[in-house]
Design brief:
Elements (H helix, E strand, L loop, with lengths): L4 E3 L9 H10 L4 E4 L7 H14 L2 E6 L2 H6 L1 H11 L3 E4 L11 H14 L1 H5 L3 E5 L14 H8 L4 E5 H6 L4 H8 L3 E6 L1 E2 L11 E2 L8 H8 L6 E4 L7 H12 L3
Parallel strand pairs: 1-2, 1-10, 2-3, 3-4, 4-5, 5-6, 6-7, 7-10
Antiparallel strand pairs: 8-9
């Protein structure tokens, strides 16, 4: 049986973190994925490490800001070592920092490749987590996701399935195209049109419009080892955690 993971960003509006970890473990998860705000200082990392041990959860994957990876890779590696993270993903690029054309995205891919060298040298995976903008063609007709990966041959992929679809891409096509580089996937669902407005149009996994049986069947043919539940704005994070893992266990 797959050990499903839970992106702790989903519960950022439901403190304290210690209670969230207990909730996640109570609902059958074995893993969690951390994100930058949880790694702000040494005390926060130490507390997170202790809470993971207390709940029996592991954290094999984590989201790290590019500023940390480029500016202080030794600190990033120290955080990863303390928490048991073996897969480091850069998760986002602010709108005002995104390249304007294909050449810019190629250059960004080279930048990621260079930034990841200390991470890879330490024996960890270094990768990129997409949103929607990587699947919107440039003015030259190229997909930023393709340009990034072509320029960064050692970069692995954490594919966020719902963001692919939000960007106008087809999840099954993306899984097939990037399958040899996908090591993790975000399982996130999109609510039917007009529903879940109070949750920004997102849905619990299996309660939206995504074809999860087909998507999971395709993902299981890739190198993906980590399947992480995420909801960007649940009104009830335990409901999301519970219903999503119930769906995933049937796939």
């Amino acid at each position: 049986m797959t050990d499903f993971s839970y992106q702790l960003y989903s519960s950022r509006n439901f403190p304290p973190l210690a209670d969230t970890l207990k909730m996640v473990a109570r609902n059958g998860y074995k893993q969690v994925e951390g994100y930058g705000a949880l790694f702000n200082d040494e005390a926060a990392v130490n507390e997170l490490e202790a809470n993971l041990a207390a709940t029996g959860l592991t954290m094999p994957t984590g989201h790290f800001g590019l500023d940390l990876i480029e500016g202080d890779p030794s600190r990033g590696l120290a955080i990863a070592k303390a928490l048991g993270i073996t897969n480091v993903f850069v998760p986002f690029l602010m709108a005002d920092q995104r390249p304007a054309d294909s050449e810019g995205w190629k250059a960004f891919g080279k930048r990621l490749h260079a930034a990841g060298a200390p991470i890879r040298d330490a024996g960890l995976n270094f990768g990129w987590h997409n949103h929607d903008f990587e699947f919107r063609p440039t003015g030259q007709g190229d997909l930023p996701q393709d340009l990034i990966l072509a320029a960064a041959p050692d970069l692995v992929v954490e594919l966020d399935i719902a963001w692919v679809q939000k960007g106008g891409g087809d999840p099954l096509t993306a899984v097939a195209k990037y399958g040899d580089r996908i090591v993790a996937a975000h399982l996130k669902d999109i609510a039917p049109e007009g529903e879940c407005a109070d949750e920004d149009g997102w849905a619990d996994v299996g309660h939206g419009v995504m074809d999860w049986p087909a998507i999971m069947a395709a993902l299981r043919k890739t190198k993906a080892r980590y399947f992480i539940m995420e909801h960007d704005n649940p009104s009830d994070h335990e409901r999301f955690a519970r219903r999503s893992i119930e769906t995933a266990r049937k796939l």
